[in-house]
Amino acid sequence: MRSRSIFEMDVYIVVATLLLLVIGILFVFSSGVTATGEIANREYLRQILWAVSGLILMFLVTFVDYRLHHRLAPTYFFVVLFLLMATLLFGRVVGGARRWIGVWQAGVQPSEFAKLALILFLARYFGDRKKEVRRVQTFLTGLFWTSLPSFLVLLQPDLGTSLVYLPIFLVIAFFSGAKLMHLGYVTAFFCLAGFFTVVPFWVQHVMERPTAAILILTETRFMRYLLGGVFAALLASSIGLYVTRQRVFFWINYSLSLVMGSIPISYLARTVLRDYQIMRLVVFVNPYVDPQGAGWNIIQSITAVGSGGLFGKGFLRGTQSHYQYLPAQSTDFIFSILAEEWGFIGAAVVFLLFVVIVIRSLYVMVSARDRFSSLVVAGIVAMMVFHFLVNIGMTIGLMPVTGLPLLLLSFGGSSLWTALIGLGIVMSVYQHRYQY
User: Fold this and answer.
1) Any transmembrane segments, and where (predicted)?
2) Is residue 174 domain-resident?
3) Among 6, 249, 258, 311, which has the minimal tally of Cβ within 10 Å of its Cβ?
4) Model pLDDT for residues 112-163, shown as the tens digit of each residue
């Protein structure tokens, strides 16, 4: 074991994190300033409190041996599942969703901490099954555990957060050595289910004259015929595979089962999701379908980002935010304010700081001394990258609006603490990288 100082930390991650926190506080402050220069809210003070307390948590977690989390991972996971169920029963309703649990004005979102609990649980699950990881039973069991918090969060309803758990699972499974065929199947399955979920709403609000192919996918009577035909083809292909053992029949089964399974799931999704959530997916393709409703967020955000130009309008000089055109501007659309006031240069700085964190975290993952710690870091990177891509993407119209915050910048204590604790675990792995 090489000697090391207990205060050894990854300076690049620490500095990039501190800079992002400062930038986040600045623009949470900016989001609360009106066009007349008055301070409409004091969210920035709470953000400062959460940032300071989160940094303390990050440094405390850094000096805790990450191997302790290996032992406690199942406990973390089942405690979080209990809290998610308690949230559905007793949680506080904010913005039409029951996501918060706590007393008086203090509360937390268990769905945020569930991300870390799932990362640790899956890292232990796959890390302890090196010889079994390529078996379909092992893969499906991991997917089952992942579906539990995802489904409970979807019931709140919180579509954006419920989607985060899947890429976490896929990345951890990939780096643990799972088959690409299994990973590709799950990815294609959920993409198809999402497509079948949105199509009826797209037809209703966008298409004037639906084609025959679209009607087959939306009309219940036609859908029954489609499912019957797919089932018959699947049965025939299964018989062909059993009799001939030809590989081509396997791939036919592979493809047909995707369609056969994703269509019923899309019906289930339409019963769970609210209409406004599905409309967010529809207006992603064309926000002007509902410019005063579901498309308003995207239109105003694109306007803000585009008006920033190269150098921006200047700090506290944005118009979209200070005239309150941007909804959820301190949370979901914090990047829109930044791009408007600091322009492309400011956005590039934020992008670069996130890249530094991701690259250094990947270095920690590669230099980790055991499978568990390596998979934990992979899961944390997946969480950070997914949040970044979806949040930035939805502010510039490349992703549907799902309500995911930009970690380390957006207003909110639970998401901020989750990101900082996650980075603390990454630096704990870095600290103990020379121990066997």
Assistant:
1) 12-32, 44-64, 76-95, 107-126, 138-156, 162-178, 185-203, 223-243, 250-269, 342-363, 375-398, 404-430
2) yes
3) 6
4) 999 999 999 999 999 999 889 999 999 999 999 999 999 999 888 788 888 8
